[in-house]
Amino acid sequence: MGGVTSSMAAKLAFFPPSPPSYKISAEEATGLLTMPPFRHRENVEILRLPTRRGTEIAAVYVRYPMATSTLLYSHGNAADLGQMYELLVELSIHLRLNVMGYDYSGYGQSTGKPSEQQTYADIEAAYKYLEESCGAKQEEIILYGQSVGSGPTLDLAARLSRLRAVVLHSPILSGLRVMYPVKRTYWFDIYKNIDKIPLVSCPVLVIHGTSDDVVDWSHGKQLWDLCKEKYEPLWVKGGNHCDLELHPEYISHLKKFIFTVEKAPSHRNSSRRSVDRFEQSRRSTDCFEVTRKSTDRRENTRQSIDRPEKLKGPDYNKSNVEKLEKLRMSFDHIERSRRSVDCLEKPRKNMEHQLDRARKSVDRLDRVWAG
After folding, report:
1. Is residue 253 annotated as part of the catalytic site, yes or no?
2. Catalytic residue of the set 208, 219, 241, 267
3. Annotated region Disordered: where (predicted)?
């Protein structure tokens, strides 16, 4: 019975483009994967990733220089990577982050057949690649789910407690609720987002069009109401199910959200990791300061010796005083060494200035989106 229900749900939920809008080919000399009809880009990597259920999914990874966040995009039920490619590249440019998009099993050049459980394995494969091959940490990853893509997105987000953020684009409460206004969750329903959203602990942005004729705006509104950590939602006035990217407020609101979550305390801590190494080196030299302070008592002792020295006259044995003087000079040398460590702060400030200049130069690309 469960298999029959799952099969029926798959027929209602998944509409992979046929034929696929792209191909994947490998260069004979290098083995480099390319994605016709799109030209090769140095910052874009075409991938084939194995899943725990035995399929192999196609994926695209777009790198952005000096990015501090990575966005994992799960697309809707009637698109594939070929149709999403340009959007993924544009999001990387305008949001200034790395972006990974992938095709569900049975979509595009991915093998197998689509199902709810298979999409969970698909997003896990993409996430695993980001962590193990790209070096992305959980607290640097933003999950983005569009329409049916909100299903695998929330399933993964509910199981990861340190994600940077989640974006839900025209999301669904559940598969059955798209077709019928049911008030409870049934065992045969798929993508039970309504039950998983309260388990998500990171900031959540919900974007939905008020004129959506595929997934009613009430789905997004109810999911936002159930969020544990709400962010100001974007209700696109007059927006439909597949045109929200065309509205100027879409990219501007996304930018504001990314900026906010990147500047949150958890990000400031992670972004300063390299600086902390300098701080730790600096703190390690502070032990010299403690030692130097402990010699202050010797300095006081030396001063106390000076008084008897005056009383005893020039024939007094000065060897002990000379030893103390040499010891004081050695600690003065240590103090100069400690001060030299402070120069590590200057390169860090110069690097921050260069990063700021580089990011400002990218602002010119905003005109492309606005146009």
Report:
1. no
2. 241
3. 289-317
